[in-house]
Amino acid sequence: MEQPHWQPSRQSAAPLHVQIMQYIRDKIAGGEWPVGTRIPSQRKLAEAFKVNRSTVVTALEELAAAGMLEGCRGGGTRVVNHTWGALAAKPPTNWDDYVKSGIHRPNLPAVQEINRAEFHPGIVRLGTGELSPELLPHREMSSVLHRVADRTPSLGYGEPMGDPQLRELLAARLRKLGIAASPASVLVVSGALQALQLISVGLLEQGSAVLVERPSYLYSVPVFQSAGMKLRGVPMDEEGLRADLVGAYARQYSASLLYTIPTFHNPSGTLMTEQRRRQLMDAIEAEGLPVIEDDVYRDLWLDEPSPRPLKARDTAGNILYLGSLSKTVSPGLRIGWIAGPQPVLERLADIKMQSDYGSSTLSQQAAAEWLGSGWYEQHMERVRDQLKARRAIMLGCLDKHFSDIASWNAPPGGFYIWLKLHSQLPARTLFDQALRRNILINPGHLYDRDANQYIRLSYAYASLKDMEQSLAQLAEIIKSISS
After folding, report:
1. What is the DSSP string of 308-325?
2. How far, in Å, CA of 465 to CA of 471, rounded?
3. Of 97, 279, 296, 312, which has the most beta carbons under 10 Å away?
4. In whole angstroms, what is the distance from residue 384 CA to residue 265 CA?
5. Considering only CA atoms, which of 307, 264, 306, 313 is closest in space to residue 284?
6. pLDDT in tens, 78-103
7. What is the pLDDT of residues 277-313, one digit of tens each?
């Protein structure tokens, strides 16, 4: 449940606990907190309302006495009735039963908490995987939208495969990367995550095994697990995914496909070497193993241009290639793409039409303007310069504050530094203590349940001042917990 943003008034004649009681009662009576809802803990409510915990306890006790709340085993308090439901002959709908029976798995609790905390005032987001508002092209985007508007943009539904002009431009860009692509082999999607959702329900049988790097971004989003798939982690080293193990893992688990981020891996920042890419291609061709290549970080190289994608080496049509503008131009555009065999994309396009009837036509026209005008390349030059400076500052902060408590590698591109603590600390304790000081981190266990010694840091989002101050504070927190 999202933390309340309301706070009681200290100028009101009504006592604070009465105001809190009325607020919660209104939420319940109005149906916003239906029967079965687990309300935030006393501590979190006290923090949100900026009152003493005893004030919250008094309000909750009165609501419990009125039959509206009830403590449950294992801690926590749930809504058990509401004012109108108490008078009705038929008990109110228990929406909690419906919520629990849905086929799509919820995010991990820590991911849900991160998603909520990201928008709290004053939070410094040290792990966020997107560009800072300072780096987004606000002025250029305004010009792009004006140019689209001047041409009287289409306001209707679009083609199942996506805007023809955008697919032409994407196919041309892919050909420059060495990928054999025509507009018919490109499907526009609402970000790379939707691409994964379409693949999970459109191409795989329930119970299929999906090989992923370990650690992997895919462990932090339940898109494949919700479709009944099982993730099987393949170890990594400094050169990327252990290609020498892929064949054995594929046979052991009867794997249906491999998901990989070879270029500026999330969360480790690793860039797969050329030799390892050749070894991986040999392995997947020997096994006949389909691959999803997630290449959304490709254009964020900082030291030298990224190597050719795996897809550029694919002569058998084994690889589905994912790209996106979310990491480079604007996550708000919600524009990504899949390149692959035409029959596969037509199947995915049909499923996409069943779910959302096509990506936003306005966003697609804006994306086409970006890619066709030459502004994208100019923007990326500026972004790379800024990210390179930000990376240097974060690495300098780590050298200054973390040299005796952690180790790390300097990533050649992307957003992330995979920080390994020398001591294995309670992940929940570290997360909570950092959050109390308005520092939001991404614990390593989100990407590998055994990676409790790791933290995913990002130099892309927080302001430079916040980054420096928060890293110093985070080091203090880690040292205090370790002592």
Report:
1. PPGGGG-SSS-EEEEEES
2. 10
3. 296
4. 17
5. 313
6. 888 755 544 444 555 666 666 666 66
7. 999 999 999 999 999 999 999 999 999 999 999 999 9
